[in-house]
């Protein structure tokens, strides 16, 4: 009858009560660090799945520091998820040329992850050969319980979605012996990640787990709140929707109940307006590389328009694809100024707050294999001006 939370609490309490907990303390509500974690991490070097791996994803938790160091020492590509997935999915740790052992040790720490990493977007073509996650509790059958926020499960599902892992990609967890416990199978859900190997200070356990790992993102369990917290989810959702997958969210019904909103009205305007506004320097779609599409001409010249710059647009992407994405992310502008030859576009919004909301919504958006650069334009338009000729 124990719940997942009961299991977590029991493990956390035991580690603290028996002097097994290490910094950061207390271990409650964390992936716990424990005495002997470095020893447990070092045993990964004896596994063939580690020796044969070229690209390894390791969570940023403190007890996994030894695995990150082992990967760097073996000159493997090390990917670490960004904190709470706020700014993307991975950071790649890139030690400086000729790094000493001491520098590699720093690179494996939380400080090193910040100082020696570069972001890897959806277009980064990651191919992960081995996944290493932290756990609060795990069973010898390979059933895992995390700290309750679901990030490790979501990271794995996102990797499946972007093609970074396969069904055969092994998953390893590093725990203290006391964290290996019996877990009732009814506690597991279809989004829960299972593990293939458990490394402790005294044992290496091959679980031979037969329970399937997540096959991708289960959108019916994703909320709007989660989309806002993890911007890269928006791009993955858009990408999967384009392939015809059902990406209905957990609280989609509430969105339908509020469908008649200003954003919805703007969407109708965008859908119904296929003719570009006749304006200086503008041209019809398909004839030239600039299009100035006035979506709400009645608001033109109000003097409060705020412009958003969208850059890094691949040559293969058409303006219609960007429009579709803007509708999908509820970031519909008053006017879209398309400059395809310069790989950019400018979006006009009625005020700064609306523009900033659009930037937040579009953060992490990927089109045509590129993660777009989205920010407030560095130079804003004057009242009544139609074209923007500089992003600087």
Automatic annotation (TrEMBL):
The keyword RNA-binding applies. GO terms for molecular function: RNA binding. SUPFAM superfamilies: NagB/RpiA/CoA transferase-like, RNA-binding domain, RBD. Pfam families: 5-FTHF_cyc-lig, RRM_1. GO terms for cellular component: cytoplasm. Residues 306-379 form the RRM domain. Keywords: RNA-binding. This is Methenyltetrahydrofolate synthase domain-containing protein. The gene is Mthfsd.
